[in-house]
Amino acid sequence: YGAYIDAKYLIRGIWDEMVHPIKTKEKHLEWSAEYTERIEGGGATIETGEISSRSAAARIAGEKRGLSEWAMTPIQYVDKKTVSAGMRAAVLKVLHEMEEGKLSQSVREALNMTNEDIGGLSEQDRMELAYEYADWATERTQPMFAPEHQSSLQRSKGMKMFTMFSSFTNQELNLLRRSLDAAKRGDPKMLVKTLGAVVINFVGAAALDLGRDILRDPDDKPNKEELLRVLFDKLVDKPSSWIFLLRDFEKSAMSKWRNG
């Protein structure tokens, strides 16, 4: 979300989600159909590694979720909390900018409006537009699981084993592409934010790997060579994870290289 929402709004969004989670959720459900479908239709499967939309008919009929869906509940929970906080931050950003009478570039682009258009808006109009921006920012920064947001490869039954969790990695690549395009047009701010997020993601993944190894064998403390190996693995993993099939070959090649 940081590419489209300033840190001060993200902090407030996270705070509201932590302190008033029910109130925040109810507000999202009232104003955002995209959020409603994500929350009520979200079901996860081990086979695809995705949080896929359950059909409305299945929900109305009261069909129970399968074991594979329940197994993915932790990922689904993190996704919901992240999106809820991010959408709250986006709404706060738009409402504040409208109050100030000066819209940022991303808001003008998403809502197709200018500062002069703010004056004639009612409170309801402003809230509708704020949530339109929240949905817009979510679609561009978070993994999307509805069929209309997925490629033909992801929707194909025969290719699902090669596209597991790709909704997560695709967004990172797409965001990087948009950031590069913005930089070429003379606006490097988004690129700086995106690269910062990629670096944080990279370091966090490396830290998780080291932590996992320490938990497996507490007596075997990682040395400098082990640290460099993990960082190198992640350096190779990061770009290859953005491309279908390449990531699978890379994982296999790296495994053979490490283990002989």
Side-by-side strand order of the widest sheet:
1-2
Work out the radius of gyration: 21 Å
Oligomer: single chain
Unreliable stretches, pLDDT < 50, 5 or more residues?
Answer: 43-49
**Biggest beta sheet summary:** 2 strands, antiparallel
What level of helicity do the residues show? 55-70%
Distance between the termini: 41 Å
Number of DSSP-assigned strands: 2
Number of alpha- plus pi-helical segments: 13
Which secondary-structure class do the elements indicate?
mainly alpha
Order of helices and strands: HHHEEHHHHHHHHHH
Shape annotation: elongated
Average pLDDT number: 77
User: Could you tell me the strand content as a percent range?
Assistant: under 5%
If you had to describe this structure to a student in words, what would you say it looks like?
- The structure is a single chain.
- With 260 residues, the protein is mainly alpha-helical.
- It is built from 13 helices and two strands; from the N terminus they run αααββαααααααααα.
- It has helices at residues 7-19, 21-31, 33-40, 56-60, 67-71, 73-100, 105-111, 123-141, 152-155, 166-184, 189-216, 224-240, 246-259; strands at 42-45, 50-53.
- It has a two-stranded antiparallel ribbon with strand order 1-2.
- A hairpin with a 4-residue loop joins β1 and β2 (50-53).
- α2 packs across α6 (73-100).
- The longest helix has 28 residues, at 73-100.
